Amino acid sequence: MPRALLPVLLLASVPALAQPKAQPCFFSADFADGTIPDGWDIGPEVEMQDPQGNGLGTFTPAWTVGDADDANANGYFPVPDTPFGNRFLMANDDAAPCNCDLADVAVTTPPIDLTGRARVVLEARVVHAQELGAGPATVEVRTGAGPWTVLHTIPAVPDEWQPLAVDLAAYDGEADVRLRFRWSDGGGWAGGFAVDDICLRERLERDLTVVSVHPNDITASPFATGDQGLRYHKLPLEQAAPVTVSAVVRNSGTDTLFAIGTAATITLNGDTHGPFTGAAIDTLVPGGQRTVTIATGWTADATGALTVAFTATADGDEDPADNSGQAAQTITGPGWDDHYGAMAADAGTSEGLIGGAEPFMALNRFELVHAGSTPHGLTAHLAGGTLAGAVVRAVLMDAQFTVVDTSARHTITPEEETAFWWGEPLYLPFTLGEALPPGDFHAGIQMLDDTTDAPVLVAVSGAVPVGASVLLDGPSFLVRYLHAAPMVRLHLWPVAVGIHEAAAAHGPDLLVLPVPMAAEGVLRFTLDRAELVTWQVLDIQGRPVVPPSARTLPAGDQALAIQVGHLPTGLYIAEVRTGDQARRRLFTVAR
Question: To 10 degrees, the CA torsion angle through 120, 25, 464, 477?
Answer without folding.
Answer: -90
